[in-house]
Structure formats: structure tokens, C-alpha cells
Amino acid sequence: MLQLDPAERARLWDRLAAAIEEYAAHVDSARVTPPMEPDKIRELLRGVRFEQPVPPLEALDFAVRNLWRHQTHTPHPRYFGLFNPAPATMGIAADALVAAFNPQIAAWAHSPFAAEAEAHVIRALGERFGFEREAVDGVFCSGGAEANHTALLAALTHRFPGFAGEGVRSLDSDPVLYASAESHDSFRKAARLCGLGTGAVREVPAGNDLRMEPAALKSQVARDRKKGLAPFLVVSTAGTTNAGVIDPIQPLAALAAQEGLWHHVDAAWGGAAALSPKLRGLLDGIEHADSITFDAHKWLSAPMGAGIFLTRDPSILSKTFSTPTAYMPKDASGLDVTDPHLHSMQWSRRFIGLKVLLPMMAAGWDGYAEAIDRMTEMGELLRRELTKRGWRIVNQTPLPVICFEDSRIPDVELVVQSVVRSGEAWISTTRLAGRTVARACITNYRTSGEDVRALADSLDKARRQVLSSAAPDRE
Ligand SMILES: *Cc1c(COP(=O)(O)O)cnc(C)c1O
User: Fold this and answer.
1) At 129, is the secondary structure helix, strand, or coil?
2) Hey, whose CA ends up nearest to atom 5 of ligand 1?
3) In angstroms, what is the span from residue 299 Cα to ligand 1's centroid?
4) Residue 133 has what DSSP assignment?
5) Cα–Cα distance measured from residue 236 to residue 131, given in angstroms and rounded to the nearest whole number
6) Out of 3.90.1150.170, 3.40.50.980, 2.40.160.10, 1.10.3210.10, which CATH number does the structure's domain 360-470 have?
């Protein structure tokens, strides 16, 4: 029953391929956003009963129909959202292959090709960040949050040799880490998961330009040392989630070195700038980082989830994660290879690297540079369109994240919700410098000038509605 017969499989694969192609070819014609109808979806699922099996094609169609209907279509060119990509075609093919071959990548001996392919991609990307090829090490993760958690564990292990064995209770002073007030919230969660608690994260003030201020970091570290705390890690963000801002990596790297702190650069989204000769300079200094978080499922357009932790300390992952295990395969013992589970917080693990390798092979560095530059140009176009129409841009970044407001509108959330409900586009709001602002990001390699202008039109329409309903009644 779990293996379908060849004729049924043939029909299923045909239908599956057709459904995938139909989505890729026609997602543009869908509403970007679904109605919010939890009761309706639960009702629908109540009809799914496992007492009576249904034909496989019917089950497949059920999933396809409801994914079309009940999903914010992140692959839509008018999804201007939170770094979620339209998946690269070769990434979709890769993920399908991985499900079919189901390589178990915990042990090298079970998946020699998968393990070496991941190591190859990691070295290639590490080199693009300026790491020396021989020193590059790293591991594929579920996403940026796991990569950042890995960074905390690596930094603790590096700074406190007793940490791996005895844990935080063996430390004679409290560890603290530093990240800007604009850094990703995954660091607070990771601090909790490491047993430090969120109080161990020192939020360093960001200046008016939303970049971390090295001078503020320096004095905070000095104050903490005076109090008897143990600073161990500085996080720079290269492309903040809110506003696409890049911390001053070079001075922060120098300061971290001077203070003897591990320097991690969270480049989950913005790291893709390393693949564009035009943008590469924005990341200057990243080559001195001890470790980097980079999400291929963001600007590299890999399907979810493809996080990467990179480091130029080839021994730190083993020190952090390796534990002796009797039952793991020994078929490769004596060879110069690494078992991935000794480098990761995961054990059984999916072959994540293939959905990065295949698009990289098919697009090449030039293909990626072109896509990244084009999305950056679309960001500039959106900035120009919004400015022309009387919106004020409130963030400064060369990357395609645009935060904006209109001082005549006290509650920009109303405008954004009106756009989202119209189904014409998806954008969001966030808080910057104490104010709620609208936020749009170019995150899709297919977003065109026409899509950008359509978003601006949609915003104009929503703003008119909000302004007219707020205006005094003249009737
Ligand atoms: C998205 C993001 C993360 C979290 O990554 P996930 O892949 O969502 O787990 C961390 N840091 C930054 C800067 C991000 O943009």
C-alpha cells in the first residue's frame, strides 16, 4: 500500500509534474493573499478520515487545491515580503530528488556524495565571503535561527573550554553577548536555548542610521567587564530584517579581535551581496569574521529551509558537537572524512545542500549576480516610485528593503492591511525608531517594473481610502 504500482506511479508523477508546472506558470494570476478562514480550513480537514483510504490522485489533488487557495503566495512577483523567495526551478527539482533518494546525511558512509557535495558548496560560498579555502568549514541547517544558535554554541565552546562538558554551571562568571538593537530575535531565543537566558543578550544601541555604534559597544563591554561579567561574542548583522541595514563590519571585527571576542556576522539575507561584484564592497570585513550565518532560502532562492553556518575555524564544530556514539556506521573509518552529525545539532538530516548546489550549477556565479543586481534595481525603482508619490523613505540601505511612511497618516497599518486584503500584493509593517512604518522588500527574481508600479498604485489607492475616511464629514 505504501509503494504504489508502476502504472499508478506513472499517473501520479505526471499529475505532480503538471501541478508543479501549473503553479510556476500561473501563480501570477492568483490573489497574493488568502482569506483568513481558520474555521473553513478545519471544517475541510474534518472531512479527511483515515478509516476509508482515498485514491492517491484524489489525495494529491486535495493538497494542490488547498495550497493554491489557502496560502500567501510567496512565489508571486507581487509578494514584497520577509525575504521569502520564489524557489529556483533547479531547487524544486533538487528537493524532489532528495525526497526520492532519501539520503541519510548523519553519517558520511551512508551518503558520501551528499556529504561531499555539501562540503563543496560550503567551501565555495566561504571563499566568496573571503575565507581561505583550506580553512572553511560549516554545516547546513534548517534555517538562520539554527545557524545563529550554532554560532552561540560555537562561541561559548571557544571561549569556555569547560562549557561542552560541564555546561554554563561550570563558569565562574556570567557570559554576555552583544548584538545591535536591530539584530534578529533568534539570538534571544538561542540564548535561552543555550541556558544563558535572554538577559545575556546585550542590546547595543543603533545610531540614527540604525547601524550598531562601535563606540557604544566598546563602552558596554568595559562596563560589563567591570561588573565581573564575561563577554564572549559580538554579532554584526549584514542586512537587518527590519530595514536591510549593514552594521559597520570592519570596525566591529577589529574591536572584537581587540577584546578577544568571537565575531559572528548574521548575513542570513544580505550575505548574497557577496555574489554581486557591484555589492560585494558592502560586506568588507566579513572575511575576518569567525563565523557567518547565510540562508540560501532567502536571496539565493532555494526552497525552504536551507540555512548555512560557516566558519574559518576548522575545529570548532567538532569541539561543539561531537559525541562518541557506538551504533553509527564505521564503514568509512580510517578515511579522511567528517561525519556530518559530529558538526551539527541535528542527527538524522535531510540532504539540504542539493537545493543550493543544483541552482548554483545551472545559474553559475554570473547568473546569481545578475538576479541579485536586478532585484536591487527593482528596489531602487520602488524607492523612486514611492518618493514621487509623496511617501517618505525612512531607512537608508543600498539593499532592496524599503521602509516608508506618510506623515499625514497616523496609522500606516490601515493602509498596509487594506493592500493585503485586496489580494493585490503583500507587504508588512514594522517598528523603526519607535514608529510603525510600512516595509516592502524585493525578494523575488521575477518581480518586474510593472509589479513595482502596481504595488505603488495599490498603496496610493489604500492611502486615498484611509485619508478620505479620516477626513471630517462634509456632507
Ligand atoms: C531570516 C533571518 C534570520 C532567521 O532565519 P530563519 O531562516 O528564518 O530561521 C536570522 N537573521 C536574519 C538577519 C534574518 O534575516
Assistant:
1) coil
2) 144
3) 11
4) T
5) 17
6) 3.90.1150.170
| Per-residue cell: 293 | 550565518
Segment 84-108, tens digit of pLDDT:
999 999 999 999 999 999 999 999 9
**Pairing mode of beta strands 307-311, 291-295:** antiparallel
CATH of 103-352, one of 3.40.50.300, 3.40.640.10, 1.10.287.3610, 3.20.20.220: 3.40.640.10
pTM score above 0.85: yes
What are 24's three cell numbers?
510556476
pLDDT lower than 50: segments of the chain: 475
Show the 3-state SS of 372-415. HHHHHHHHHHHHHHHHHCCCEECCCCCCCEEEEECCCCCCHHHH
Nearest residue (CA) to ligand 1, atom 15 = 241
Q: Grid cell 546525511 — which residue?
A: 105
The cell for 116 is 561531499
Backbone angles phi, psi at 88, to 5 degrees: -65, 140
Q: Are 202 and 176 in contact (CB under 8 A)?
A: yes
Q: What are phi and psi of 309, to 5 degrees?
A: -105, 125
Q: Which atom, in ligand 1's list, is nearest to the CA of 267?
A: 13
